Amino acid sequence: MPVDPGTARELVHRVFDLQRVVRCLANSELKHHDLGVAFQGVLRMVAEHGGRAVEIASRLGVSAPVLSRHLSDLEALGYVERHRDPEDRRAQLIALTESGWAALREIEEHRIARLQSYLADWDEGRAAAAVEALSQLSDALRRGSADRRLTAMTTTTAQEEARAAH
């Protein structure tokens, strides 16, 4: 049975509200770390996927020149490094440095602690149900999307998740 239009409308509103709240929280958290939200997103994507810059740009939904500028800044800070791809000498492989991993861990530990404080009145079951609902929604949106770029940008395999846990 399809979702009622009123429920779908409410879900759209809740998703946009969640995006707005998360963006506002992320911007308020900038005081905690010297990296902006965009740089933090690049660090997370490199940690999860690594690989060629063009693939990372696609997953982030940005142009190669935009990513290249971010990578240059992150490289200057000592957070990422570029290596020639042995399979294609024209391409570069991007990886986090130890400093990059440390910065990402610090950022995420701070975010986790903040989220725990925001959810202080939630029990584990409620939090797990929210994780499951958000996962199901993300999966449904990926499956329903005819836009292959959306699927490429958001798909994370178990192998990539394991690499991100580095």
Can you walk through the features of this model?
With 166 residues, the chain is mostly helical. Among the domains are: 1-31; 34-118, Winged helix-like DNA-binding domain superfamily/Winged helix DNA-binding domain (Arc Repressor Mutant, subunit A, Orthogonal Bundle), CATH 1.10.10. Helices cover 69% and strands 10% of the residues. The chain contains eight helices and three strands, in the order ααβααββαααα. The protein has helices at 5-28, 37-49, 53-60, 64-76, 98-118, 124-144, 148-154, 158-164, and strands at 51-52, 80-85, 88-96. The protein has a three-stranded antiparallel sheet. The longest helix is centred in the first third of the chain and has 24 residues, at 5-28. It is globular and about 50 Å long. The N and C termini lie far apart (42 Å). Residues 156-166 have low confidence and may be disordered.
